[in-house]
Amino acid sequence: MQYPVVLLPGIIAPAAIRYGPLVERLSDVDMILRDLAVYKDDAPPSDFSIATELVALDRATNDLGLTRFHLYGHSGGGAVALAYAASRGDRLQSLAVDEPASDMTAEGNAVYGWPEFDAAMVLAPAAAMVEFMRLQVADDVVLPATPAGNPPPWMAKRPAAIRAFVGALRAHQPDPAAYSDFASPVYFSRGSRSHPRWAAMQTRLAGLFPNFTGEVFEGLHHLNTSHQAEPDRVAATLRAFWQRAETGE
User: Fold this and answer.
1) Which helix (H) or strand (E) holds 213?
2) pTM for the whole structure
3) Which overall architecture, per CATH, does domain 5-247 show?
4) ∠ CA 82-161-32 to the nearest 5 degrees?
5) Is 126 exposed, middle or buried (0-12, 13-18, 19+ CB in 10 A)?
6) Which among 5, 160, 23 has a CA at the least distance from the CA of 81?
7) DSSP state of 156
8) 96, 103, 167, 218: least buried by Cβ within 10 Å?
9) Where are the chain's structural domains?
10) Could you report the per-residue pLDDT of 62-120, keeping only the tens digit for each?
C-alpha cells in the first residue's frame, strides 16, 4: 500500500487496546494509532470541541510528513473521522468507520435520543457508565459484566471526557453537502444488535456519500464490535478496501 492508515478509537478504550487484534493481522500495513485529543491532559479543556480533535489530527499527521492517508475510526473516533472527511477530505485516500458515535446531521440529531444521554450523564460515575453502555445496544442485549478488580488507571479520565465529547458532538454541525462532495471511497460497518440509530445512520450516509459501501455483522453490537469479534474478517475486508481505494478498481 502506498498510503498509511490512521486509526482513531472510541471514547472508552485506548487505541492500543481497541485495535490490538486488528493491528496484529495487518502487520504488513503502515498503521498509525492515535488516541483522541480529549485525553491529552488529565481533564478535557473547557473549550473542547470536535475542531480540537481535527486540529490534533492535522498536527499529528503533519508531524509524520503525511499528505494523504487512509482513516479508520470507531464510535467517537468514527465521528471525528466523518468530521475530518467533511472539512479536510482532500487529505483522505479513503474513509472507513465502524458505528460512528454520530454523523452530526440535523436528521441524525433529531432521532438520536440525546435526552436519554443527558439523563445518564447526571448519574454517579459508575451508574452513568453502565447507562451509557446500555444506550449503545439493542434493548434486549445483556450488558457484559463489570470486570473484577480495580479499573485500569486510564478509566479515571473517562466520565469527564465522555461528557465533554457528547457536548462537542451535539455542537458540531458539518454541512451535509461536504459529505456529498467527498469522492473517495467510504466503508461503513455496524453490528445487527447495536442500537437502531446505526441502521438509520447507514441509510442516511449511503444517501450522502457518492462512493459508499455498508456492511452489517450479524449478532454483533457496539460493545462487541466487528474488529474485536472478527478481526480476521475485518482485516481482510479493510485491506481489500484500501487497495481498491489506491488503484481505483
Assistant:
1) strand 212-217
2) 0.96
3) 3-Layer(aba) Sandwich (3.40)
4) 50
5) exposed
6) 5
7) G
8) 218
9) 5-247
10) 999 999 999 999 999 999 999 999 999 999 999 999 999 999 999 999 999 999 988 98
